[in-house]
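For the sake of transparency, this paper describes our internal protein records without simplification. Such a record has a labelled line for the sequence and another for the backbone structure tokens. Nothing more is needed to write down the fold, since each code stands for a local backbone conformation. For reference, a complete record is included directly beneath this paragraph.
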Amino acid sequence: MTEPEHLIDVKHLTKRFGKIVAVDDVSFHVDQGEVVGFLGPNGAGKSTVMRILTAFTPATGGTVRVAGFDPFWESMQVRRRVGYLPENVPLYREMRVTEYLFHRARLKDVPACERKRRIGEVLDRCGINEVAHRVMGQLSKGYRQRVGLADALVNDPPILILDEPTVGLDPNQVRLVREMIKDLGKRRTVLLSTHILSEVEMICPRVLIISGGRIVAEDSTANLKSRLAASLEDVFAKLTTTADVVGHERAGEEMTMSAGEER
């Protein structure tokens, strides 16, 4: 098989749920070694796109290739090459962390002779050695998220698809997970969804913006930040010259997007 032009290649992707169009004619690509942010409000269609890429739900129309394979017709080939962290990590709460990771390594066809080494590596990389023998139902949200990331990494996939990896975490946990993703991106291709602009800025050199199921912008993070700053300055300038406005101030640097339920 020849090397694919793009590691992730999406063309005119559409997904309908009855009369609802969740994803509408979406096209983008991610090349090998890239870390790309998928930015948009809740309900924009981010999770739907990611579930299609990872072979969890079929598309209604368009074409998708992940590492050269079609997620619908060649789902096992795709799953062997992708580590997927969903927004809500589905863990077996009654299992211990190492027990769960051995179970997942076996399902992902990690050779028996390599499982112990691979699990040791992901425990260390994800900072969960200290809870390795704990029952997962007793873990905090932050630790459960890191166990989910360890699961995504246990078969050493070349592609990581991470859906809102820091949602629901406290500020210290957010910082740790962001640093971990930046480090992982040094040797893997990463597609990361979020509704937090600053998260994309800190982790991703390139960003795709989705709204209402459509890609509305695609640019480098640096260019996007410059365009956004220029737009904000224009708004502030107009506010200053508006007679009805007595005063204004900036509320903070971290900008989030939200608009209803996630699709």
